[in-house]
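LOG
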Amino acid sequence: MKFQFTVSAVALLAGLLVVPGLVGAEQAPAKERKKREPTEIRTLLEAGRASASWPEGMVIHVSACLGEPDAKVAARVPAEMKETWEFAAGQVHRVSFEDTNTKSTDHRVASRPFDSKDLCKDLLEGKAIEIAAEKGEGPKVGLLGSHYHRGSRSIEVTWKGETILHLYETNGPFLKFYRDSDARAFGALYERLASQARILFQSKPAEAK
């Protein structure tokens, strides 16, 4: 399913935004530091891929808050789809949010053992760095690979508390989509990561740590 628009100026969004009418929250931002160069990020990920190990202090947050399913599949999918996963060394966590006034806090509600050695490979082969550069071709589109017309999806990579990659798309309430080639890569990478967590959590949850 493809969603396309022709707005010439897109409002930039600093974090994961929710669909109007859907319950959701954005995570507390990582510490602000000088933006790392793509070459630094690639070197870090390539070192992890070469050693088949997950860099110490690295975490991936994968989140989605989607609504308005396509009419052709509306009877087979939920009216809303919300998920947040956190990949860390040796574990993946299911995360939920709690809102208090204007502040949102996240909580790990369940955990699974997870072999994180291939996550660097996933990010590199999934073209995370290229997507972040936003040099793709074609019209701006979003939510590719999903069954929904509105919402937000986000992939955030932090290292030692610093955000080094933040990929996201949203059309509610702001607009932020990638060009076609990057949008397709983003949708594929999102599913590549999120599906690993979904499969693990089909069994009984372990205690959160």
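LOG (cont.) second protein
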Amino acid sequence: MGKLIPLLIALTGLAGGLGTGFFMQSGDKDVTHAEVTEGDVHEDGHAGESPVCPPTDSAGHALPPTPDAPADFVKLANQFVVPVVVENDVDAMVVVTLSLEVEQGAQQEIYNMEPKLRDAFLRVLFDHANMGGFKGNFLNHLGLETLRTALRETGKKTAGPILYDVLIVDMVKQAL
């Protein structure tokens, strides 16, 4: 009887694992696409760009944001410190270091508009934190891609065409 109990526990665990694996499989492998409504179509007849999805090629694969011309890199002087608030208390602090990929020779122009860029980037980071972007496994691909896209779009709106990309150089979360 003493040897039967561990065997039953092992068989129960094995059956539970197999059952969980079976039910957790994605049964539908097909991708569904959202319908484009009239409000999503611009005057030129093209649908608006998604803030989550990067631009794609003809095969539907994401394109890296690479400029045609040579680029310079500008490291922003200070790190960004973002509080993670849970139930009206600061639960953790996230420290982010950003660099900017800019048009060659545009470094001084970026340094001149750094306060405005920092303000815009902080707004994006605070919004990301308030939406729960820094909770749990905040380093997953989809969460980071959403943050990268939002930072890139905000940077391009603020700096204009001289800004090619915003690079997340370092990200650290410290629980309090």
